[in-house]
Amino acid sequence: xxxxxxxQSEEKVLKPIEKLVxxxxxxxxxxxxxxCPGCTHGIAHRLIAEVLDELGVQExxxxxxxxxxxxxxxxxxxxxxxxAAHGRAPAMATGLKRVNPDSVVFTYQGxxxxxxxxxxxxxxxxxxxxxxxVIFINNAIYGMTxxxxxxxxxxxxxxxxxxxxxxxxxxxxxxQIAELLSGLPGTVYSVRRSLHDTRHIIxxxxxxxxxxxAQLKGLGFSIVELLSSCPTNWGMTPTDxxxxxxxxxxxxxxxxDYKVVDALQTxxxxx
Amino acid sequence: xxxxxxxGNVAIAxxxxxxxxEAYFGYPITPQTELLEHMSKRMPELGRTFLQAESEVAxxxxxxxxxxxxxxxxxxxxxxxxxxxxxxLSYIAASEVPAVFVDVMRGGPGLGNIQPSQSDYNQVTKTxxxxxxxxxxxxxxxxxxxxxxMGLSFDLADKYRTVVFMVLDGAxxxxxxxxxxxxxxxxxxxxxxxxxxxxxxxxxxNIVTSIRLGAQPLADFNDVxxxxxxxxxxxxxxYEELYTEDAELVIxxxxxxxxxxxTAVKRLRKDNIPIGLFRPISLWPFPYKRLGELxxxxxxxxxxxxxxxxMIHDVREAVGRNVKLDFFGRPGxxxxxxxxxxxxxxxxxxxxxxxxxxx
Lengths: 271, 359
Known about the structure:
The structure holds 2 protein chains of 2 kinds. By secondary structure, chain A is of the alpha/beta class. Chain A has one domain: Rossmann fold (3-Layer(aba) Sandwich). Chain A has helices at 41-55, 89-99, 111-117, 119-127, 168-171, 177-182, 198-216, 231-234, 238-252, and strands at 2-8, 14-20, 61-65, 80-83, 104-110, 133-138, 187-194, 221-227, 256-260. In chain A, helix 1 packs across helix 7 (198-216) and helix 3 (111-117) crosses helix 4. Chain B has helices spanning 8-18, 33-45, 56-68, 79-84, 86-95, 121-125, 143-160, 170-174, 215-235, 255-270, 288-295, 312-319, 338-358, and strands at 4-7, 23-26, 49-52, 73-77, 99-105, 136-138, 163-169, 176-179, 207-208, 239-242, 249-252, 275-280, 282-284, 300-305, 324-329. The longest helix of chain B has 21 residues, at 215-235. The radius of gyration of chain B is 21 Å and the shape is globular. At the A-B interface, strand 3, strand 4, helix 2 and helix 4 of A face helix 3, helix 5 and strand 9 of B.
C-alpha cells in the first residue's frame, strides 16, 4: 500500500514522491487467518514476520505450531512449518534444530499448550539451552476448546471450567512462565511484553527481534511471553478485552525483562 | 567383515549407525539401555545427533521433529516406554514421515518386570496409537537377524514413509552371539523434497502436519493411508519355515519363542513326530495367506508365545475354524524351556494318535 507524501524541492516546487509505509511482510503468507475478530494472534503473527524479514532469515526459518487456536499458524507464515502434538512443540523443535543447525527454529504456543500439558518439554528445552525461540501467547484461557481455565487464568476469573471464578485454594496459582524459565542457566532471554496498545506492541516487536538474535548468535534458549486478548472467550468487545489485559493481566503478569544475558545487552541496557 | 562376538543391543545400535541413522533420541529403560549408551558414544564421534530426552514423550516428539527434516531417525525403548510414545507414533504415521523404533519388550502389564517378554505384540501390531494406522513390525530371533533387520527397517521406513518397529525381547537384547556387521553406508548428500530445512533454494514452503480438519479431506487421507498399507501387506511379508513340507502339527512362534520352539521341533523330529515350525518375521504384515495355505493340509497348530496369548488371534484368523489351534505361553517375563514346549507337543500328539485309533 502506498501513500503520497509531498516534499518541497529547492525550487519550491511541490513534487509528489511515492513512499511505502505499509506492506505485508514477506514472511507472512497471503492467507486470511481464522482468528476471531479482535484477537491479538494476528498482531503477534505480523510482528514475528516483520522480524524474520528484518533479520533476513525467512528462507531458513522453520515454525513449529502448537495445538490450540494457532494450530494452523503454519498456513499464515511463508516459511517451512510443522504441526506438533499438544505441548510437544519444544521437543519437536529440538529434533528439527539438532539436524538443521543452520536453520532458525521457533515455536508459537499458547498457555494451555506450553504452561499446562507441555511444561516439561519447554523446561527441558531451556535446560538444554536449545537454540530455539519460543513465542508464548498468554491469554489466560483455553481458546480453541471454548474458554476453559488455563494454568495462567487469574484469580477470580470466570471460565467455563471455573464458573464461580478461579479459586486459588482449589486450583492453584496463576503460572508465571517468563519468571519461571528465567531461572534456568540455558535460558538466555526471557521477557514479558503485552499487545494491548501501540506502545506495547512496538516494545513486543523489539523483544521478538532480540529473541531471534539470541538464536542466530547461538547463545541458547529464548522466550517472549506476550499478554494477549481473547474477546470471544472472555465475553468482551475487542476494546474492552484490551483494557482487561492492561487492567487485570498486567498486574498479575508484570511486564519486563526477567533474563537478558550480557551478550544481548546494549549500552543502554536491555534494548 | 568377519564375525565378532556381539551383544544384541549394542549390535543393533551399531547396525542402525551403519544403515545411515543420523539422529537418535531416547530415554533410559531396561532392558534396552545398552543401545542408548552405544549411541551416546558413537553418534557424536561421527558428528551425528544423539540426545537423551527428558522422557519417552519428549523422545518420540524429537524423533518426529528430526524425521520431518528428512534424516534417518530412530529411538529405542521397552514396553512402558513404548506406551508413552504412542502419541508421537500416531502423529508420525499421520504425517507420513519415516521413523524407526526398536522395542526391547519386557514383562507387563504395568511396571511389570525387566525379564524377556513378547507382551507388546498387540500394542505394536494393532494399537500403536489412536486412529487407523499400522507400523511395519519386524521380529528377529537372533543377533545376526537383528542386525540385518535394522538396515531393512530404515530402508522400508524411507520407501513407504512409514513407522517401522523392530521388536525383540531382553534375551536377544542382552545375549552375546557371533555375528557379522554390514559395512558403513554413505550418508545421502541431499534431503528429500518434502523435508523441513527452511525454504532455501526451494521456492515454496514445505508443511508437515497431521491435522486435516474437514471430514472429507481426512477420509480421503485415510484412503491414501490404507492403500499404502495394502501395498505393504502385499509386498513386505517375511517368514521362515522349518519341516513344514510333511508336517501334521505346526508350531507358530516368533523371536525368542521361535528359537526355543526350534530346539523342541528338532528333538521331536528325531522321534519321528511330524512337526514343523512356522516363524513370522514380519508381525505386521502378518503372513495370513501362507499360514492359511498350510492349514489346507495341516490339521493342528500350536501358538507358542512369551505372553498370555496375543499372536494366537492372528494365527486363528489365518488358519480358520476347521483346524485345531492350541496355545502354549509364558507371560510375566519367563522364557519357556524347550522341554516344556516338547512336553506340550508330545501331549498333543498323543491325543491326535488316540483319536486316530478310536476312529
